[in-house]
Amino acid sequence: MTEPWNADTPQVIQLPSGRRIRGRGLRYDLPEGQTPTFAVHLTDHRPADQPWESVWVPWRDFWLPADPAEAMTKLRLAYERAASERVEICCGGGIGRTGTALSALCVFEGMDPKEAVKWVRKNYHSRAVEVPWQRRFIRQTFAAGASGASGGGRADRP
Question: Fewest CB within 10 A of the end CB: N or C in the chain?
């Protein structure tokens, strides 16, 4: 087991289950202190290699993941690993895509989609989940049983 995120680490939130996850924007410098052991990159291009394990979810800014089912599988993996590892979820600015992914993790915790978005906006960033189709993606996560088997919707149009 890895030492968990310190509670005072910038941009780390603690989910109701106790799992701690860091959300951040890749456009900004890596915060000082602890580094992740596992990261999920939500970007439109393959990110540079990191010294820690990471997975890539192709996801254009202000849109939805290119493959919603694959995205849900990788987010489920991040959720499971956050129980014993330092997991980071990140996109370009660290707000929309990251907030959407964090909201999906809240749905995995059993939250209603609307409550999940509210919770992330209160505990992570007030503008998280930036566009209506990202909120719809969270509802579809819930409708799919939050199993990661389906993300629903097409990524090429809202």
Answer: N
